[in-house]
Amino acid sequence: MQPLTIGPHTVWPPVVLAPMAGITDSPFRRLCRQYGGGLFVSEMITTRALVERDPETMRMIAFAPDEKPRSLQLYGVDPQYVGEAVRLLVDEDRTDHIDLNFGCPVPKVTRRGGGAALPWKRDLLRSVLRAAVRAAGPVPVTMKMRKGIDDEHLTYLDAGRIAADEGVAAIALHARTAAQAYSGTADWSAVAALKEQVTGVPVLGNGDVWEASDALRMMAETGCDGVVVGRGCLGRPWLFGSFERAFDGLPELPLPRLAEVVRVMRRHAELLAGWWGEDKGIREFRKHVSWYLKGFATGGEVRRRLGLVCTLAELDELLATLDLDQPFPQDAVGAPRGRMGSPRRVALPDGWLADRSGGRADVGAELAISGG
Known about the structure:
The protein has two domains: 4-253 and 344-365, Alpha-Beta Barrel (TIM Barrel); 258-332, Orthogonal Bundle (Non-ribosomal Peptide Synthetase Peptidyl Carrier Protein, Chain A), CATH 1.10.1200. It has an eight-stranded parallel beta barrel with strand order 3-4-5-6-7-10-11-12, surrounded by six helices. It has helices at residues 26-33, 47-51, 55-60, 79-91, 107-110, 122-136, 156-165, 188-197, 212-222, 239-247, 258-276, 278-292, 300-306, 312-319; strands at residues 4-6, 9-11, 15-17, 39-46, 71-75, 97-102, 141-146, 148-150, 153-154, 170-174, 203-206, 226-229. The protein is of the alpha/beta class.
C-alpha cells in the first residue's frame, strides 16, 4: 500500500480528517495528531468572509506552530471570491493545502446553489475550480463532494472528470447524496466507479469509516488511494493511532478504559481553553462530552451537569465522580456516531434542475460567516 500524495505532501497513513463545522478546530486537530499521522483539515471557511477579513474567520484560519502541513477547507460559489480568497491565503503564507467544499447538504447552503448543489452546474463548477487552482500556484487544491443531489440527479462522475481536467491534486467522495444527508449507508461502489474513471488523480473515499478495519476494507474493495474519516473520530481522537497501526500491519491496541477516556477529555478541554480562552473553550467542549462518554455508565445527572460545565475546575470535579475502571463499551465499537438524520428533499434554487449549464449561483450563497 502506497502513501497518499497530495501535491508535495506525502500522507501516511493515507487518512484524512474530514472538515467538520464546529469540530475540527486547531485544538481537535492537534489532539488527533498526537495519536497518529494523516492529513488534518480545518472546519469550513467561507471565501467571502475570508476576503472581507471577518475577525472570527481570520481567527479560524490560524494554525498552531506544530500543525504541518496546514490544511484549510474553503466554501464558495463565486469564482472571483474563490480566487481572491485563495490568493490571500497563498500570498500571506497561511496554508499548505486548500480543499474546496462541494458536499455540504445543509439547506441554507444548497437552496442558494452552493455545496452539494453546485456540481449540477458543470460550467460553474469548472469556473470555481479553475479560479482556485490558478490562484493557488504551487499550493495543491483538492475537492470534496457527494454523489449528487439525489439518486435521480447524480453528479460525481462528471465532477470528477472536470476536477481532473482543471488540475486538482485529489478528489474525495462522500458516497452519499445530499438527499441522504448522513442517513442510510454509504455507497462504496460509487467510490470504486470514480476511481476507475479518474486515473491520474488520487481518489479518496468517505462514508461509514467507523474503525481502522473499515478504512482497510474500503481501500481493498474500491481501490481508492485513501480514506476520509469524519464522524467516526468524534469522541475518539485516538482512532488515528488505530489507523496508523492498521496500515503499518501492527495489531490493534486494547480499547481504552474510562480512566484513559477521561484523561483525553481533560486534555481536549485544556487545549480548547488555551486556544479560545477558558470561557469559550469550555463552552466549545460541551458538545464533545456525549461523544466521549457514549456507552459508558455515568448517571443522568452527572452527564447533564457535564453538558453545562463552565470551567476546567468544574470539569475536574465532575470527572472525578465517574467510575473510571469501566471498560470501553463493546456496543460503541463500529457503531455510527454523531448526527444521522433521515432522507429529505434537497432545498434548491428555483429552476436549478432545469439544465446543467449556466455559470452563476445566487450571490447570497456566498455566506459571510465561516464554520458551516
